[in-house]
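Quick one: structure for this chain?
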Amino acid sequence: MTFVTILGFIAAGLTTSSFIPQAVKTIRTNDTKSISLFMYLLFSTGTMLWLLFGIFSGNMPIIVANAITLVFAIIILIYKIRHQLAHRL
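Got it. Here's what it folds into:
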C-alpha cells in the first residue's frame, strides 16, 4: 500500500467518522428540527456521486469512505423526511 493510499484511508476514516455522532444522536432523540433537509439531499447526492467516481476510478479510499458516509447520511435523511412528513399530517 502506497503512502498516498494510506493518507487517503486516514482522511476517509476521519471524515466518515464525523457523521457517526450525528447519526447516533438523530436515532436516539428522533430530533431533526435543526437539520436542513436541502443540505442533506445535496450532501447525499454528492456522496453518491463520489462513491460512483471512486468505483469507476478504482480508488479504494474514496469507495470505502463514501459508501460508509452515504449510509449515515441516508439514515439522517430518512429521519428528517419522516419527521417533516409527520408534522405535516
